[in-house]
UniProtKB/TrEMBL annotation:
<dbReference type="Pfam" id="PF09974">
    <property type="entry name" value="DUF2209"/>
</dbReference>
<dbReference type="InterPro" id="IPR014514">
    <property type="entry name" value="UCP021940"/>
</dbReference>
<protein>
    <recommendedName>
        <fullName>DUF2209 domain-containing protein</fullName>
    </recommendedName>
</protein>
Amino acid sequence: MWDIIAVDISGRHRIKGGYYMVCAAAALTVSASHIEKIKQIKILPLWQKRAPSLLDVVQLIEDTADQLSFEGTIVAEKGDMYNKPKWVTESMFSRAFKYQESIAERMSIELVHHVSLSARNLLIKELEIEA
């Protein structure tokens, strides 16, 4: 078993003159094919006028992961990193980073995707910034 921080960002598309993104990060212990333990989950919203760059995405992920009181390798989908090669994105993070590989890592990404999407939808409704 090993510790990871699974991350996902929802909302990298234009809405009402800007980009309202929500990043979710979960500290988990996983085995090859199962999530063994969910330790903590955090979300962080971000509003910006311009389209998010890769550097913006990396910063949002790092800021969200920094809210967790657990260590672990950050695991993300390649699409969240604009399909850049691992060596490009890996060099931009201050901690260990990788793209999902195992079944458990895929399941972890799915978990945080549901968290980020649900949180974003709720915040958009509550803040009345619907498209």
